[in-house]
Amino acid sequence: MAAFEVRGGKQLRGEITPQGAKNEALQILCAVLLTPEPVTISNIPDIRDVNKLIELLRDMGVKVGKLASDTYIFQAEGVNLDYMDSPEFVAQAGALRGSVMILGPMLGRYGRCQLPKPGGDKIGRRPMDTHFLGLEKLGGKLTLEGTDFYRIKVEGKLTGTHMLLDEASVTGTANILMAAVLAEGTTTIYNAACEPYLQQLCRMLVRMGANIQGIGSNLLTIQGVDRLGGTEHRMLPDMIEIGSFIGLAAMTGSEITIKDCQIPELGLIPDTFRKLGIQMEFRGDDIYIPAQKHYEIATYLDGSILTVSDHTWPGFTPDLLSIVLVVACQAKGTVLIHQKMFESRLFFVDKLIDMGAQIILCDPHRATVIGLDQQKQLHGITMTSPDIRAGVALLIAALSAEGKSTILNVEQIDRGYQFIDQRLNALGADIKRL
């Protein structure tokens, strides 16, 4: 088990460029299964989950060529369907939550797919019902072997239909969309997710020859086509990294410029951090955060305590609530953090309390943070990263704290953040990988 040894209390300074978006990558990479023609993808993040998915695609028979450090060419000309019956496939796919994204492309192009129950962060229940209900409405027949293995196939071709999703699941929408583009007839998906990453997938599929209307809305209309061709695609920068760097700058009183942010795609992220009192300037497509000694949480117009909660797009992303929570620890004022979508994502706050933060965990979904206003610094402790996002929140806390902190299980952080220790050390941090 790897660990970070962090010496906190240092101001950082300089420029940092966000990696490509992990959540987009998991969809985009699986979309290469829809065509036998070459697909070139750039700005791919060099992180564990993405690399494991590329390895899975290669072992399934997809030709993979690396053109540059962040650019690959894929050609799914001869996918080995028998590989899905192998113990190796079960082990690979079961260890990676992103493997769920092969369901739609494989069912749409080959008429069948099977998958062990995928892994991923332990952040609460993450049911896959939306995926399977949508694929079944297109004509897929689902069988469940035990509690951990899914098989889905179709007799003949998938057939377009109208469906109303039970939740606006990003991965569920993507899976259904990738199956529907090769189905016969018209499919309408109401209550579809409309995150920027889903819009990116739609635009890529359109360049490949798909017919999709309503991109960016919660009603997608797909006219099925017989086949898709190759294309080139560049992924967006990771909005979760961008938000994490904004929070890091404020928490450590640092002057940081975040480069190439694709600011129009960030939605409520900048404004939410501004509500915490964090100053920032947009300089072209860069975000400049000046060094601040203090930042104050806003209140509502009637003076009541601010609530920051997550919601489906265009609401605030749940992946950044842990960052907002830790940044609020050193703000002036009080904020209620309401994590609506996952019931275990706030269970890292006990580590922050041990570091000296003033937090009341109200229930599995809500925490009240009373900011210290830099009057008292957090102090370093030994802690364990429970998941990707909480791990980075704890890293930010450690970088702001007095003394030495040790963060165990940083493989979790590596799954989502590309060489984060090296990149932050270049700004003046003191992080040692053990």
Q: What are the main properties of this structure?
A:
single chain, 434 residues, alpha+beta, 14 helices, Enolpyruvate_Tfrase_dom, cell cycle, cell shape
Can you put this structure into words, describing what you see?
One of its GO terms (molecular function) is UDP-N-acetylglucosamine 1-carboxyvinyltransferase activity. It catalyses: phosphoenolpyruvate + UDP-N-acetyl-alpha-D-glucosamine = UDP-N-acetyl-3-O-(1-carboxyvinyl)-alpha-D-glucosamine + phosphate. Pfam families: EPSP_synthase (PF00275). InterPro entries: Enolpyruvate_Tfrase_dom, Enolpyruvate_Tfrase_sf, MurA_subfamily, RNA3'P_cycl/enolpyr_Trfase_a/b, UDP_GlcNAc_COvinyl_MurA. The model is unreliable at 120-126 (pLDDT under 50). The chain has 434 residues and is an alpha+beta fold. Helix 10 (321-328) links the parallel strand 17 and strand 18. The protein contains 14 helices and 23 strands. The longest helix is centred in the middle third of the chain and has 14 residues, at 239-252. The chain has helices at 22-31, 48-59, 87-94, 103-110, 129-137, 170-180, 196-207, 239-252, 269-275, 321-328, 349-354, 388-400, 411-414, 420-425, and strands at 3-7, 13-16, 39-42, 63-68, 71-75, 112-116, 141-145, 149-153, 162-164, 186-190, 211-213, 219-223, 231-234, 255-258, 281-283, 286-289, 306-309, 334-338, 358-363, 366-370, 382-384, 404-408, 431-433. The strands form 6 sheets. It has a 4-stranded mixed β-sheet with strand order 21-22-1-23.
